[in-house]
Structure formats: structure tokens, C-alpha cells
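stage 2 :: seqdesign
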């Protein structure tokens, strides 16, 4: 264990599955003080126990929360603040694909609620800590899936009944890119950075929350063609910890390289509009 992350505080959502789990293991191995957020209490506690045993570090903690719930997002931020005065790295990673249309507790379309508002709300609530922590970083998991579907601020938060699945997922992943772009602008002058990335097609539990053909397809195809979680987490870990990544902000990466975004245009106005909409929904 290198210990190069000793003294640094990491807050990680979606830390008990897939690339989030692989990255959290690496951060803990290198000495970071870990706070992980998980929806499933039993799974979260089991992973915390595993990390403590592997590292000998008991200063690894769990916050149980549903990151599609605005009340839970605010509670995560409050619990984190109660125990920490700085935040070196925030990893926004909790997300899912929902085949069927459903609403969150707050009446938002579930894909948007979890995949975007979970990122936005937690970051927004901890923005002052990020700005006051020397060289803080925000790393958010996006996807090449941002290419799918159109992006309409007027309907993205709720959509029409029956319209979810891949188009909603693609729009939420493009929202991650717009969010990162506007966040980087708002962090200017603080020394903090914000970037997002595509992890590749990774063999995880992704898509298995759905039934029917989609669940079958992911369970069959993923083990054969997908990357390991460790490979999928490589760019996340690099963005969160490497000196080379410190010079980048507001970018979208794939395999450690800045990658072109497929979008209507490099639209700063759209990014600001999404931020303003999200702030209204969150407050």
C-alpha cells in the first residue's frame, strides 16, 4: 500500500458495486479516509467491514441513502459536514438504467432523479467545502450513452408517462457532461476541478435491476464482452488522484483521454439552464 492518499477525504456514491467498488478499494488501499454512500445498508456494512480488514483502517464510514431522493441527498451532505471540515475528492457514481417509466419520491422521472439530481444535489450542498479544500476534485461517471436521444430542458425532469428506458438514460448521461461543464465554470479561481468520464462497457450489475429481455441480455452479454470493474474504474481513479489530471477541468474523458462529446453544440447556455433548473428542483 503506497499511502499516497493519507489525510485525504473521499466521498463516494455508488461505492458497493462495479467501478465504484473497484475504485473505493484502490483509494482505501492508498490510505484515503473513505466515506461511502450506499442504498443497501447490509451491502454497505459488509463492504466497510471488508475494507477495514484489508487496510487495518477503522476510519472508513458508511452513509445509507437513496440518491434519487432529495431529502436523502441533503441528509448525506449534512451527515458528511457533521464529521468533516474538508472534501478532497467527491465521486458521483450512483446511477442506473430504468427500462420502465417511474417517478421518484419527489415526482421526478427516476432516471433523471438518480443519474443527474443525485450528482447535482450532493455537489451543490458541499460546494463551499470543495472550494475551501486545496485542489479538491469532483469526478462524475457519465457514458458514451450520452449520444442517445434529444435533450429538452422543458421535459427532462419529468418526461411523459411511458417514455423512459435508453432515451432517458442517454439524456441523463449528457446531463452529467453539462453539469460538469457548468460546475467547472463555477469552481474557477478556487483551485478545485470537475471532470467526468465514460468507463466503457463494464461487467457489473448494471441493467440487472430491470426484468425481462433487458436483464437477460445484460446477464448474457456482459460476462463475455465487458471490461472488468477494475479496468472500468481506471479513468475514475486517474482523474481523482493523478498529478496529470490536475490540469484538466470541465472535460469528458475516455481511457484517460479528453474525448469529443456528441451534442447539439458546445452549449454553455444549455449547461447554465440545466444548473438553474436543478437548483430550483433541489431547493
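stage 2 :: out
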Amino acid at each position: 500500500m503506497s499511502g499516497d492518499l493519507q489525510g485525504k477525504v473521499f466521498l463516494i456514491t455508488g461505492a458497493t458495486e462495479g467501478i465504484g467498488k473497484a475504485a473505493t478499494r484502490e483509494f482505501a488501499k492508498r490510505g484515503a479516509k473513505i466515506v461511502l454512500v450506499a442504498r443497501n445498508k447490509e451491502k454497505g456494512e459488509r463492504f466497510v467491514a471488508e475494507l477495514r480488514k484489508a487496510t487495518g483502517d477503522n476510519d472508513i464510514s458508511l452513509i445509507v441513502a437513496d440518491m434519487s431522493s432529495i431529502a436523502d441527498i441533503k441528509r448525506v451532505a449534512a451527515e458528511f459536514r457533521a464529521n468533516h471540515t474538508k472534501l478532497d475528492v467527491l465521486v458521483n457514481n450512483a446511477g442506473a438504467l430504468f427500462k420502465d417509466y417511474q417517478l421518484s419520491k419527489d415526482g421526478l422521472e427516476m432516471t433523471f432523479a438518480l443519474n443527474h439530481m443525485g450528482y447535482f444535489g450532493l455537489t451543490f450542498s458541499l460546494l463551499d467545502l470543495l472550494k475551501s479544500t486545496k485542489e479538491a476534485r469532483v469526478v462524475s461517471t457519465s457514458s458514451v450513452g450520452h449520444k442517445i436521444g434529444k435533450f429538452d430542458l422543458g421535459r427532462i425532469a419529468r418526461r411523459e408517462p411511458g417514455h423512459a428506458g435508453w432515451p432517458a438514460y442517454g439524456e441523463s448521461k449528457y446531463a452529467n457532461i453539462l453539469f460538469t461543464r457548468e460546475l467547472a465554470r463555477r469552481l474557477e479561481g478556487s483551485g478545485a476541478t470537475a471532470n467526468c468520464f465514460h468507463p466503457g462497457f463494464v461487467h457489473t450489475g448494471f441493467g440487472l435491476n430491470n426484468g425481462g429481455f433487458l436483464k437477460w441480455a445484460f446477464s448474457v452479454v456482459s460476462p463475455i464482452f465487458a471490461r472488468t470493474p477494475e479496468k472500468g474504474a481506471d479513468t475514475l481513479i486517474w482523474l481523482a488522484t493523478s498529478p496529470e489530471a490536475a490540469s484538466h477541468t470541465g472535460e469528458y474523458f475516455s481511457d484517460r483521454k479528453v474525448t469529443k462529446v456528441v451534442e447539439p453544440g458546445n452549449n454553455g447556455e444549455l449547461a447554465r439552464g440545466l444548473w438553474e433548473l436543478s437548483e430550483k428542483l433541489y431547493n
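stage 3 :: structure notes
- Residues 205-211, 213-218 have pLDDT under 50 and may be disordered.
- The first helix runs from residue 18 to 29.
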